[in-house]
Write a structure and sequence with these properties.
Elements lengths: L7 E5 L7 H11 L3 E6 L2 H13 L4 E4 L5 H14 L5 E4 L18 H25 L4 E7 L11 H21 L4 E8 L13 H11 L8 H12 L10 E4 L9
Length: 255
């Protein structure tokens, strides 16, 4: 029996076995949670299905979170399977690569809309459906980054999108609190993931954090997963609308 035993939930955003969403899945599974997964496209299907089998997941479905019909379809199927869920992990973000190069001021209208839709609005779209299945309360957790608070070189429009995501967390927490649904965000320090490696200068960022952070190291994916476990478990029953930094203390330096 673990602290997540008996809890059921869905995870959006697993890309491979090094993604933060997968570290969350492992932590939750290790403490007894039952997991459902989604993926986008055939390439990810080949990666995600074997991972889902590792944790005994009964539910692996395609879902493009920019398509409301697909979100509805996933939650309809999930409702047929379980009827009720206890948590959601939202680990979805995207921006056009060219908008993560050069200067933020050069962001195109289309690029801005894409980044905000996928990286921020999808949390609201998912939360609205999930709340209908959280009849006994629940926990919604998303992943953000320090670039929402401070300017991070080459993060550009993604930083603006993450700022919108963090504001969404607070408004959703206010809306859903009366249903005993908690909404929180984990602001993870730099971790070697597929998405992170696409950011110019990421390796230099890892080196800088290792030198500047009070703990003198970079955060590990497992530590992010353990924080998600805390938010899903009853240990965080009075915590909502919060952005918690898991970055070895780097953010406290205000750099």
């Amino acid at each position: 029996m673990g602290i997540a035993a008996g809890k059921k939930g869905i995870i959006f955003g697993v890309a491979n076995d090094h993604s933060l969403a997968w570290y969350c899945a492992q932590a939750l599974h290790s403490q007894g949670a039952e997991l459902a997964f989604t993926y986008q496209g055939e390439a990810l299907e080949r990666r995600i299905k074997p991972l889902a089998e590792e944790v005994g997941s009964p539910f692996v479905e395609p879902c493009d979170l920019s398509d409301d019909d697909q979100i509805d379809r996933v939650f309809t199927k999930l409702n047929r399977l379980w009827g009720e869920i206890d948590f959601v992990i939202h680990a979805v973000a995207f921006a056009d690569k060219k908008d993560l190069e050069g200067h933020f001021v050069d962001t195109s209208r289309a690029g801005f809309q894409l980044a905000l839709d996928v990286s921020a609005y999808t949390l609201t779209a998912v939360a609205r459906r999930a709340a209908q299945m959280m009849t006994s309360g629940g926990s919604i957790v998303t992943l953000t980054y320090y670039g929402a608070e401070k300017v991070v070189p080459h993060y550009n429009v993604m930083g603006v999108a993450k700022a919108a995501l963090e504001a969404s967390v607070r408004y959703l927490a206010a809306d859903l609190g009366e249903k005993n649904i908690r909404v929180n965000a984990i602001s993870a320090g730099p971790v070697r993931t597929l998405a992170a490696m696409g950011i110019s200068g990421f390796r230099e960022m890892l080196k800088l954090v290792e030198v500047k952070a009070p703990l003198k190291r970079n955060v590990q994916g497992q530590e992010v997963g353990n924080t998600a476990l805390y938010f899903v478990s009853d240990l965080s029953s009075a915590v909502t609308g919060e952005v918690v930094h898991v970055d070895c203390g780097y953010s406290i330096l205000g750099m």
